[in-house]
Amino acid sequence: MSKKHVTSAEVAERAGVSQSAVSRTFTPGASASKKTIEKVRKAAAELGYRPNVLARAMVSGKSRIIGLVVAYLENQFYPEALEKLSNELQKRGYHVLIFLAEKTAGHIDTVVEEILDYQVDGIIAASVAMSSDLSERCRAAGVPMVLFNRSQDDPNMSAVTSDNYAGGRKVAEFLLAAGHQKIGHIAGWHGASTQRDREAGFISALAEAGVALHSRAEGDFILEKAADATRKMFANDAPEAVFVANDHMALAVLDTLRFELGLKVPEDVSVVGYDDVPAAGWPAYNLTTVRQPTNRMVANTVEILLDQIENHTGETRRIAIDGPLILRGSARIPKGWTT
Amino acid sequence: MSKKHVTSAEVAERAGVSQSAVSRTFTPGASASKKTIEKVRKAAAELGYRPNVLARAMVSGKSRIIGLVVAYLENQFYPEALEKLSNELQKRGYHVLIFLAEKTAGHIDTVVEEILDYQVDGIIAASVAMSSDLSERCRAAGVPMVLFNRSQDDPNMSAVTSDNYAGGRKVAEFLLAAGHQKIGHIAGWHGASTQRDREAGFISALAEAGVALHSRAEGDFILEKAADATRKMFANDAPEAVFVANDHMALAVLDTLRFELGLKVPEDVSVVGYDDVPAAGWPAYNLTTVRQPTNRMVANTVEILLDQIENHTGETRRIAIDGPLILRGSARIPKGWTT
DNA sequence: CTGAAAGCGCTAACAG
DNA sequence: CTGTTAGCGCTTTCAG
């Protein structure tokens, strides 16, 4: 049977110093003489000692664990975000405890409680709606939280998104400039702020040009539903162009249009998505879309969260970062169009 | 400023019992009278008390945290696996601390050390090669580890994979039955056991039919490299059929074949992949592939790991689960072919 | 069944 | 700079 763990006390004994000396050599801001540090390091190496993070967390009150809540890993946008978030956090000395939120509403409450049980230093909630009860709960526990790719009216909840409203407008302007008049929208889940903002921006720009939405159907951010929505929308009086609320659904829309309805894109219909997930750039889809500036969103999210954790300045911030329209082949390009 | 945490002592005081009584009501196997439990529960609810998992971990020695190492989140196979793994673990009362392994060899060592620092109860390494040093390190720390979708010769390392050798054979038999003779293989990273096993099975079945591999190129499990490999392979004396080591690369192969080389699939060339990721079933790709039985792989992985954690029976197991060939449109189907 | 007491491994004052 | 002394919040003997 192997010994489960080398303790700082054992290292201390071997190095001929006090246990606190050991602690100090492994604590960033502590002061110890070169000599001591060296002796300790040597003994530690020989014994294979590493500080127990959990014990450290208990006494210091900081676990250096960030709870991350995610929902739709099927949507390529999220694995990518998760990876970047985790890397950025890791770089700053934090680690990610991951929690998958069931689509079930109310389940999220349980999840947050569980997260809190782990004494996380902070929470990042990606694509999840937080009741103000929950945010209150976290505040009471002294655990800062920031929303990623979702925003809320709650004034003391930090949130980072792309500028979805502006993005929606860009799509409308682009479609209009291409001469489309009969324009449809396949919406995602209405409960998501991203959906609401994208659509609002889209509609408003359309309205400014005196154009009303030709047709609308809901895809709920789910592949099959998006396919259904497409069938319904194109059953009669089909639109000339469609803005799909995210790329994930847009891929299904494209497939349905081409392989089921036998339509040509963009000859028969222009399609524009949102997110710029990897697959959007693959030749088979070649989807024109609005890019979410993931890197900057991640950087900001981490920045805000760590600032809140480390400086305890409760200042909440809500950021919406502008993302560019990426021109590809799924939508007719207006003559002389430039970004 | 809000109070950071309600302690069991506070609950005890309010409930008029000892602190140990509180601990007992929240400890599964403990004994306490109905009366006590009720009083404690009530007080706990009023105060919003929840046991501190970290403190519990410290004294009990079990953190109920599983360290999960993943590498290629871009490959749809992994987000899916991650989700299932996490859900299964959550169901059993464990949570996942995620670590993204850089492709960098040697970096994995650092990662494992970090994982160990968190006193995890076990480790699941997905798509990562473990040096026997590392596995030794974990054993010394008393932390069981099981490999997911990767296998190793190390006899005391548990591993769960699909039956890659058999899968490779199936592809060969299928292609041969369709009458193909000039058959190529686009390989993944040679360091992966999955790659080696799939190719070995493939080659062996080919050999039994007296057929030698017509051409071979390496894609390293990376999209761009797979595209390059395709270009090279089809530059002259193109094969009639290609077995691509995983779906992730196969998607790029398909795109390159169709949109760059102008070939028709499966008329000009049959393509078969491996994994059956979601995108393989999307109409744009419609890829014939060998399905990895993810659910069963996950179930077995969790089963083995928890068995090792909870029963401390060091019995290591290596499992290879058979997966079916999924017939779709990217490869010519032999006349009268049945599974 | 229940309270008192002893730590888990570590950091953070506190005197020297 | 360094050792000593308290705990962090909880589980777990050990006597009752």
Mind explaining what this structure looks like?
- In chain A, 44% of the residues lie in helices and 16% in strands.
- Chain A starts with 7 loop residues before the first helix and ends in a 13-residue tail after the last strand.
- The longest helix of chain A has 18 residues, at 294-311.
- Chain A has 339 residues and is an alpha/beta fold.
- In chain A, strands 2-1-3-4-5-11 form a 6-stranded parallel β-sheet, with helices on both faces. In chain A, strands 7-6-8-9-10-12 form a 6-stranded mixed β-sheet, with helices on both faces.
- The mean pLDDT of chain A is 93.
- In chain A, helix 2 packs across helix 3.
- Chain A is built from 12 helices and 12 strands.
- At the A-B interface, helix 4, helix 5, strand 2, helix 6 and helix 7 of A face helix 4, helix 5, strand 2, helix 6 and helix 7 of B.
- The structure holds a DNA duplex (16 and 16 nucleotides).
How does the helix and strand content of chain A classify structurally?
alpha/beta
Shape of chain A: elongated
Mean pLDDT of chain A: 93
**First-last Cα distance of chain A:** 66 Å
Q: How many helices of chain A in DSSP terms?
A: 12
- Number of beta strands of chain A: 12
Bin the strand percentage of chain A. 15-25%
Quaternary state, please?
homodimer
- Identify the biggest protein-protein contact and residues per side: A-B, 57 and 57 residues
| C-alpha-based Rg of chain A, rounded | 25 Å
Low-confidence stretches of chain A: none
